[in-house]
Amino acid sequence: MRSAILFPGQGAQFRGMGADVFGRYPGLTRFACDLLEYDLVALCLDDPDGLLSQTRYTQPALYTVNALHTFERVRREDRPADCYLGHSLGEYNALLAAGVFDFETGLKLVKKRGELMAAASGGGMTAVLHTTASRLDEILAQDGIDGIDVAGYNTDEQIVVAGPAGPLSALHAALQRRKIRFAPLRVSAPFHSRYMASARAEFEEHLRKFTFAEPDVDVIANVTGRPYEKGSVVSTLSAQLVEPVRWTDSVRHLLSADPATECEEVGGKSLLRMVEKIRAATPPSLPDPRT
Fold first, then answer.
1. How far is it, in rounded angstroms, from Cα 233 to Cα 229?
2. Would you give the DSSP letter of residue 23?
3. 3-state SS of the chain: helix, strand, coil percent to 5?
4. Which of 27, 201, 205, 223 has the most CB atoms around it within 10 Å of its CB?
5. What structural domains and CATH numbers belong to the chain?
6. What is the pLDDT of residue 283?
7. What is the SS3 string spanning 36-95?
8. Which SS3 state, helix, strand or coil, does residue 132 take?
């Protein structure tokens, strides 16, 4: 039976995270604090200034805690994974686990990513529940709402959208009229959409300062829902800022190789719940449409 390890992204942070691993890795923890130039341990454990939910702090903090949990798996000699997947920010932990870069490089990347995403403004994101992507397209067309991008396909019936405040408000009203549930996300900008194009350009320039190895095992990319291709790290990670997280396609690709794939999530259960919904909605004989 194949195994896969899943890494959560922004939204999975919580006060007290890292309490079980900071003490085991004091050197790496101090290194992270020095590189970030703030007390990461205090931020994660106590969040005294209420900064943990802010993008520029969330992303390096969650990356670091996920990384320490990954190192802890290795220390315990847990079974190595046959595949890694990460949701948005979590993809950086997947790449770290697969040997594409070291801890320091990953931390420098997510620090810059968090700063660029935090600097963006003028819109937001919303999760639309119990609604397919095709039905959402119908609603947008029926009500003449322009400027909305799909930012994530979490399951077949949980779609995340992004856009400026005006179109998002119009979409919220359209969903309310149809009694469709939705949840605005606590983010400062329309991430994973066309509106992050300027951030993408700057981040791609930053990515080109680093050298990346090829993954030791498959890492399924959010942008394509398929394993990373050779030499594609820079283009894929920069595109991730403006493309939707294709989590449903990613999980279906994973299950196409082995429907019984055993999945483990680092630090939570939210991604596992998505996997089980996708697994339940996927006929066992359904081939991967992308192969």
1. 8
2. G
3. 45, 15, 40
4. 223
5. 3-120+193-280 (3.40.366.10), 124-184 (3.30.70.250)
6. 82
7. HCCCHHHHHHCCCCCCCCCHHHHHHHHHHHHHHHHHHHHHCCCCCCCEEEECCCHHHHHH
8. coil
The tokens describing 103, both together, are 């801890």
Token code pair at residue 234: 């820079």
pTM over the 0.70 mark: yes
Q: Give Cα separations from 153 to 170, 239, 249 (angstroms).
A: 21, 16, 8
d(CA 111, CA 55): 10
Q: CA–CA separation, 270 vs 268, rounded Å?
A: 6
Distances 33 to 51, 80, 188 between C-alpha atoms, Å: 15, 29, 25
Nearest to 3 by CA among 72, 91, 81: 81
Residue 39: per-residue pLDDT: 98
Residue spans of alpha helices (H) in 76-216 = 90-97, 103-119, 133-142, 165-177, 197-207
User: Using CA atoms, how far apart are residues 54 and 71, in angstroms rounded to an integer?
Assistant: 26
Residue 247 makes CB contacts below 8 A (sequence gap 6+) with 87, 152, 153, 154, 155, 222, 271, 274
Residue ranges, the chain, pLDDT below 70 = 285-291
